[in-house]
């Protein structure tokens, strides 16, 4: 079997463009992969056009390791977010082809279920708090999440916080967390996102004030570039620290593991090179007693791919899910899209990723000038308008 070529499809919303890559073969089998780029979708498409000619066309889709190695190192330049995201789409599609050809789900090819007695994967909701930034609105929105059966949810309550958070904004942010905890009760997991906003001193202060609400983790409390700053925060709080969505090469996690600054890593399968690279990273994390909770802000193909990893990973904690709350209509572009029932996904037994991309449905959502600015007023509404007015758009 040989790859004859690829086709790319962009599904657009005001705040995110989702790129789907179909890999076609001379035996009629087609696989699909997905990633979500922020502000670099056209760059990704350009890279994939070149990679198709230089590396992909004519390759054996079963020889995933060889193809990844050539795409990552065969152009000599150091692979960054765009290249690793392109690799992830193609690599994931090859696993999909391999599973379909052999008649088994990808998780079966990766060693089988880590817990043979349980085929569920816990989910947490994100993108649910697209409401006014008041305790009353957040309380109501959080109640709706748990009424849908979710047992965990995440939020960033910190507005436009950047390095510092003044007293008034601190009180406002804490009131939002208090309202959400009151809405969901003590048994639902509450995950707190900081989006790399703060200085270590501010993050440490906020961590202390957030402890009464028992969050399961603090995510990216400081900007991701300085791991010593992260270690400083970790040393001053008992709350678990999560990070990793903006690291795009598993080798770059080495220093994070050595520092023992993170309790949970959050690699994005769509940016890290795909399923095989994530599997290797998860195994390394296990040797450092670190849990894995992938960043997952894509659509249903990326979710399905992340679930393949979840099924065979002993140190897998939980999987993020946006698509019940933000742009729920885009689920129609994937047949067999994974669903959350009573707080859990169920591992599919269907071959490959267990889903099929619908190009005709995708055409209903053309690429947009998607915009997402975390430091703009009302960014959390995810309507694509935050930050554009300030830039004259």
TrEMBL record:
Residues 135-240 form the Mandelate racemase/muconate lactonizing enzyme C-terminal domain. It comes from the Bacteria. SMART domains: MR_MLE. Keywords: Lyase. GO terms for molecular function: lyase activity. InterPro entries: DgoD-like, Enolase-like_C_sf, Enolase-like_N, Enolase_C-like, Mandelate_racemase_C, Mandelate_racemase_N_dom. This is Mandelate racemase/muconate lactonizing enzyme family protein. The lineage of its organism: Bacteria, Bacillati, Actinomycetota, Actinomycetes, Kitasatosporales.
């Amino acid at each position: 079997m040989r790859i004859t070529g690829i086709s790319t499809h962009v599904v657009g919303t005001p705040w995110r463009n989702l790129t789907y890559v179909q890999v076609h073969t001379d035996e009629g089998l087609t696989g699909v992969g997905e990633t979500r780029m922020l502000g670099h979708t056209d760059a990704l498409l350009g890279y994939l056009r070149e990679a198709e000619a230089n590396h992909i066309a004519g390759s054996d889709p079963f020889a995933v390791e060889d193809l990844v190695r050539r795409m990552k190192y065969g152009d000599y330049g150091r692979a960054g977010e765009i290249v690793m995201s392109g690799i992830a789409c193609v690599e994931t599609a090859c696993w999909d082809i391999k599973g379909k050809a052999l008649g088994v789900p990808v998780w079966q090819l990766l060693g089988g279920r880590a817990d043979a007695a349980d085929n569920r994967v816990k989910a947490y909701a994100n993108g649910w708090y697209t409401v006014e930034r008041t305790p009353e609105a957040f309380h109501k929105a959080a109640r709706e999440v748990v009424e849908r059966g979710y047992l965990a949810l995440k939020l960033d309550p910190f507005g436009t916080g950047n390095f510092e958070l003044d007293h008034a904004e601190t009180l406002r942010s804490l009131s939002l967390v208090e309202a959400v905890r009151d809405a969901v009760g003590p048994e639902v997991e509450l995950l707190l996102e900081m989006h790399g906003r703060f200085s270590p001193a501010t993050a440490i202060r906020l961590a202390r004030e957030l402890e009464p609400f028992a969050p399961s983790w603090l995510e990216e409390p400081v900007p991701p570039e300085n791991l010593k700053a992260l270690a400083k925060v970790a040393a001053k709080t008992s709350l678990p620290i999560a990070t990793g969505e903006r690291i795009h090469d598993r080798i770059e996690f080495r220093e994070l593991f050595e520092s023992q600054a993170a309790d949970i890593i959050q690699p994005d399968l769509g940016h890290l090179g795909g399923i095989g690279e994530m599997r290797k990273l998860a195994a390394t994390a296990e040797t450092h007693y670190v849990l894995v909770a992938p960043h997952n802000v894509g659509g249903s193909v990326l979710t399905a791919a992340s679930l393949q990893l979840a099924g065979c990973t002993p140190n897998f904690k939980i999987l993020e899910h946006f698509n019940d709350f933000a742009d729920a209509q885009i689920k129609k572009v994937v047949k067999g899209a994974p669903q959350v029932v009573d707080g859990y996904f169920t591992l599919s037994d269907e071959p490959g990723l267990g889903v099929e991309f619908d190009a005709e449905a995708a055409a209903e959502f053309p690429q947009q000038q998607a915009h997402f600015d975390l430091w703009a007023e009302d960014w959390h509404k995810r309507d694509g308008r935050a930050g554009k007015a300030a830039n004259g758009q």
